[in-house]
Amino acid sequence: MPVLVKNHRELLTAGIAGIAGTGIDVAVLVLLVARHVSIPLATFVAALAGAGTSFVLNKYVAFRDRSPLRLSQVLRFDLVAIVAALLVAGCMKLVACTLGVPVVTAKLGCAALVFAIWTYPAQRRLVFGGGAEAVS
Questions:
Q1: pLDDT tens across the length of the chain (136 residues)
Q2: Which residues contact 125 (CB under 8 A, 6 or more apart)?
Q3: Is the dihedral of CA 45, 80, 86, 113 positive or negative?
Q4: Engineered SS bond to 92: which of 43, 76, 78, 131, CB 3.0-4.6 Å?
């Protein structure tokens, strides 16, 4: 049976980086929703706001990437973050808007789901992992 997670420290610290980014994300989300911005749009904008913190923590702490900062890496991270933001926004549309789950609870659940199925695997392979050099 293949091992799904090869580096538990990396997964844990990427998760912590995600939590820090999500903290910023949730703060922006709550602020925008309080100002009557639609939940999907507020979710998308807030997710992008938390991405900067996540990038720095993932690059230097979680994935221990000491390579020089390159535009190609930032663009790959941006692609992963935009896809993640769209996935979370779609999930929020379903969970918060359609099912009526409170916004912050829905956000945390949607973010955790998207982290597990998209963000961590994509960052590991495309942005900070061995596959990142091949994409450059």
A1: 455 556 888 889 988 998 898 899 889 999 999 999 999 899 888 878 888 888 989 999 988 998 998 999 999 999 998 999 899 999 999 999 999 999 999 999 999 999 999 999 999 899 987 545 544 4
A2: 131, 132
A3: negative
A4: 43
Name the token pair of 91: 């999930």
Q: Spell out the domain ranges in the chain.
A: 8-128
Structure tokens at 57: 């923590």
Single-letter residue type at 110: C
This prediction has a pTM of: 0.74
Q: Strand ranges (DSSP E) for the chain? A: none
